[in-house]
Structure formats: C-alpha cells, structure tokens
Design goal:
Layout: E1 3-8, H1 16-26, H2 28-33, E2 35-40, H3 54-74, E3 79-82, H4 88-103, E4 107-111, H5 117-120, H6 124-134, E5 138-141, E6 159-161, E7 193-198, H7 207-219, E8 224-229, H8 237-246, E9 253-257, H9 261-270, E10 273-276, H10 285-292, E11 297-299, H11 305-308, E12 315-317, H12 323-335, H13 337-354, H14 357-373
Parallel strand pairs: 1-2, 1-3, 3-4, 4-5, 5-6, 7-8, 7-10, 8-9, 10-11, 11-12
C-alpha cells in the first residue's frame, strides 16, 4: 500500500480549500486506499486572521516545518500531496516546505485551489522558485480552464483534472423551487423573488457590483429580497450595510453574517436565485451547493465557473464587474419563475452527474494511485 503524506488545509478556518481538505482527510475511500498521514498546512486559526497576526503565524509555521521534517524521516512516504498556494506570501511559505520535501527525494503532487502563477511568473524571484517547485512534480487542477495559469512550468502530460465534489445536503428528491415552504415565490412573477449571495464579504467576490445591480433592478420596479450571508473579509458588515443604505436598498437587502449547518441549508431552500458576481475565483464550492439545491445561478466566466454554470441552461454568465449586465439577467429570472425552475432542475442534474463527493473521491484515488506508481527521475537525498 502506497504511503502518502498529505500537507493540506483543513478546518479551521473554513474556506473552499480547507473544506475540500476536510473531505479528503475524512474520506473512508482515500484512507482505505492508501497509508495516509495528514499535516495541516494552514497557519491561520480563523478567516479574519488570514493576512494578520504575523507573530502567531510565525510560531505555527516553524512548528509546521518541524512536523514535516519529522514525518518525512519516520513515516517515509512514497508520495507527498500538497495544496500549494499559487502566489504571494502563501507561495513563498509553501515553497520552503516543497524544497524540504525535495531534499528527501519524495514524489510530489500539487493540488491547486487558487490561481496566480501566470500573473507573477515574470518576476525574477518568483520565476526561479516556480521552476524549482514545479520541476518533476505532478499537478492536480480543478478544470482545463485553469491550465494556462501553470502552462509555462508544467507540460499537460503531468497535469490531472479533478473538479471538486460535495456531499448531498439537499437530498435527491428535494427541489426547493417547488417543495420548500417558500416555494410560492416561484409560482408567480408578482411575488418577491428571493436572491441569495453566500461568500465572505470580499470586494473581489463582487459584493459592490451586486449592490449596483440590485439598485438598477429596484429602479426598474422589480420585486425582490436579497440575503447576503458571509463573514467579513476586506469588507466589514457595517461597510456593506452602509453601502446598501446609501444605494436606497434598505429593506430590500439584508446582511446577516455567517451561517452554518441547518441555517445555511434553510437559506438555500428559501432562495429562488443564487448570485455570485466574482472576479477572482477558481471553482467556487458555493456554486456547486447552489446547483445541488436546484437554484439558477447568475455569475461570471471567472476561472472554471463555466464548468458549473452553462450559460442559458443552468444559469447566466455575465461579464465581470458589469452591474448592468448582471441586473439584466437577474431581471429576467425575477420575472420568469418557470425559467428559474427549468434552470434549477438542469443544475441539480448536473450536480448529480459531475459534482458529487463520491465522484470526487474516486477521481482522487485514481490520480494519487497513478502518480504514486509513476516512475520519476527524482533523486532521493535522504531515505533509508
């Protein structure tokens, strides 16, 4: 049985990469297929701490390095799996971990949940580090849409594609567009449509674009109510509420903070339309959740989102930062409950076919087995 050292993010804090890391760590199939050892790559205890509290994170990072060295010495893995940051301080920290793994001559596979290599590859130091990090390594990407980000350093023969998957929280037979207690909102264009935004309050998620779009559709006389769920990122809840009030949307848009578990599921079930106007993402798990709950989606063609949202079929894709285009598509869905139901059903079918947790786990086992058994030119400097 192949021994695999997983150096990855898992909760806390809760974000896309850590959620997937938690799925891997708890996967019965993966743990029965390999002899696994897990180390948490994260140095932030909360989302709010990301980019802050350098003293606490420095201590955790030194402890992480010690854990990695000790595990490489005594566990002696056949393969090291890392969820590598693509750029910035996160990449520099991860690159040191990679160089330590390279000293031990262990095969490496990187699973990217972000992008940014192509943006930084012309910088001298970054280019050098990218060459060292990617040499002889395999890469797992969420979609072929994301390959151009690493194309300079990794031939496609060393790239594996594995879209994320999530457990079915909605249930196979449930269609919230019809069956939940709020389903009446889907029956008539005269009823207020319920819109849902669920992500951290980060400008690059398009929160201010969304407010502008909602202001446009309000001025057109559309009847709607929007719930914004998520903790503060680079935008605080108070800043968001102030922007909403200044836009004349008080009473039409509510900012309600973080929601988990049953409260989160209830929010999906009450919604008629899911909106995600991001301009910096890869393959957001929250869109898979929306699709799972049979919601039509209005988003942007950012990253691998076109793999989830088929324009005109499971929702609409609009240009990034284009509040007018977003308002136009929201207006179409608000006024057409039958279209909402049709797109939501198509999204649910797509989830069941492509984005279940079971499908993700099987694909991960397939990739890791292939990489672990693949011959490599890597020379082991420290081992047996």
């Amino acid at each position: 049985m192949n021994r695999i050292l997983f150096i990855l993010h898992y909760p806390p804090p809760v974000h896309g990469s850590s959620i997937v890391g938690g799925f891997i760590k708890e996967s019965r199939l993966i743990n029965e297929s390999f002899d696994c050892h897990y180390i948490n790559l994260g140095t932030s205890a909360t989302v709010e701490e990301i980019g802050r509290n350098p003293a606490n994170k420095s201590f955790r990072y030194l402890r992480l390095i010690w854990q990695v060295k000790k595990t490489l010495l005594f566990f002696k893995p056949d393969l090291c799996y890392l969820t590598l940051s693509s750029a910035g301080i996160g990449f520099y920290k991860d690159a040191l971990i990679v160089l330590i793994v390279r000293l031990f001559g262990i095969k490496r596979v990187y699973h990217f949940h972000n992008k940014g290599v192509r943006i930084n590859q012309e910088k001298v130091i970054d280019n050098l580090l990218y060459r060292l990090v990617f040499e002889n390594a395999e890469v797992i990407l969420l979609s072929k849409y994301l390959y151009p980000d690493v194309q300079k350093y990794v031939p496609e023969s060393r790239v594996h594609y594995c879209p994320n998957g999530i457990p079915d929280e909605a249930g196979v037979s449930r269609n919230p567009q019809v069956e939940n207690h709020n389903g009446k909102h889907s029956l008539s264009p005269l009823c207020a449509a319920h819109l849902l935004f669920l992500s951290h309050l980060i400008e690059s998620k398009g929160v201010f674009v969304l407010v502008k779009a909602l202001k446009i559709i309000k001025e057109k006389g559309c009847t709607f109510h929007c719930i914004m769920i998520g903790g503060a990122g680079d935008v605080t809840e108070d800043q968001m509420r102030e922007t909403i009030e200044e836009s004349g949307l008080k009473g039409h848009v509510d900012v309600v903070g973080k929601k988990y578990g049953e409260e989160k599921r209830t929010a999906f079930e009450k919604a008629d339309i899911f909106v995600h106007p991001t301009f910096n993402d890869c393959l957001p798990l929250v869109l898979i959740e929306a699709m799972q709950h049979s919601l039509p989606i209005v988003s942007t063609p950012e990253g691998a989102i076109p793999d989830i949202v088929e324009d005109g079929i499971t929702g609409f894709l609009v240009p990034q930062k284009d509040a007018i285009a977003m308002a136009d598509k929201l207006e179409v869905l608000i006024k057409d409950p039958d279209l909402r139901k049709k797109m939501g059903s198509a999204g649910r079918a797509k989830y069941e076919a492509q984005f279940t947790l079971e499908r993700f786990e099987r694909r991960m086992v397939e990739i890791l087995t292939q990489v672990a058994e693949k011959k490599t030119s890597c020379v082991r400097l420290v081992r047996d």
